[in-house]
Amino acid sequence: MRQAGLVQFSAGPVRLVTDLSSDDVNSLLQVGTAIGTFWPQRFGDLLPAEDGSRFGFTAYVMRDRELFLKAGLLPADLPLLFHGRQDGSEFWMNDQTRDYYRRHLFLHEATHVFMRHIGGEADDLPLWFLEGMAELFATHVVSDDGSVAFNVYPDVRERFAGLDRMELLRRDIADNGVRSIDEVSRLRSGDFARLETYAWAWALCVFLDEHPATRAGFRETVKQLRERSLTEWLGEVYQADPVGLEVAWTQFVSHVTYRFDFERTSVAITDGKPLAGPHSVEVQSGLGWQSSSVLVEAGQRYVVEAAGQITLADAPKPWDSEADGISFQYVGGLPIGRLLGSVLTGGGDAVTRARSMLEELPLGNRAEFVAPVSGTLYLRVNDDWGSLADNRGSLRVTVRRTE
Question: In order of start, what are the domains of the chain with their CATH numbers?
Fold first, then answer.
């Protein structure tokens, strides 16, 4: 179809009406066709339509909106919130200057179409999930051989030009603090007038989809949305271990980074015991927070001493460090390799306890500190939470009370 500068293309489930160039069209058809086989893998097959027709959607991708208005293909009063809008089996989106983000927005709106056709319990899905899953599935990589991977966690910023979800999270946390799991799960339509809200919805979906404690259950629940309530599942998981889940979530969003390592940063929550004398523990350089098994008391002064040497990277050469860290690279304003401490308070609700760990203590080879709250002392080696896989070795850390 050619009409007033517009061209129509069809491939797989996609009917595309656009004024884009042929290269951009081919790119959208490529990812649109590929995701048509990915959705059923994660959501399950759609129920057959009453008329026996196969699932499909129509995308209007607009470089010049006036062409679509003149052709009667764009309702004059249709708001395009942040460049895209889906309605039933159709969506409209403005063209984007970055190739990656053009495809991402296309996949985001297309995923909305598919999710609206699931039926059953899925007819009443929470908005954070609808928007978060659209963001999650739209995050993709096109390989040199033409294959497309969806639902990927970003590894380097350059491959995801225009996405900036992590940067939005960092900015919003700096301005407004960390949102709890409950706060994100209660997001409503009006909240999505801010682009940062999409970043929070993405963060909760990617957390549930990737964290070792929730990954299997979340993916299975997504496949059973016709029969099972997502909200009930999340409530059951949260009730089973509210502190562990809230700590893991708070640490993820507070340290969100490219290549975030969900496995190595998973926190094992254990209760510490009061010191009867000096207590020593091994702190692995390739893991996140690790319990010292020491219960510290608010206002009490402690001495921490660390011995040993760790390796933080192999390229361009092995970077060896003691607990004071090495200043060739900084994370959080401190040298990588610096021994850090944090106290998980033993009192309060799960959110309060999780947020107590946001106060980090720069310890190093030897330090004295006054416990800010009563609770279990946790320790870790400072490094980017996406760069732990190449760390080797451990520090022998001893904790004692001062007289």
Answer: 2-121 (3.40.30.160), 148-254 (no CATH), 273-401 (2.60.120.430)
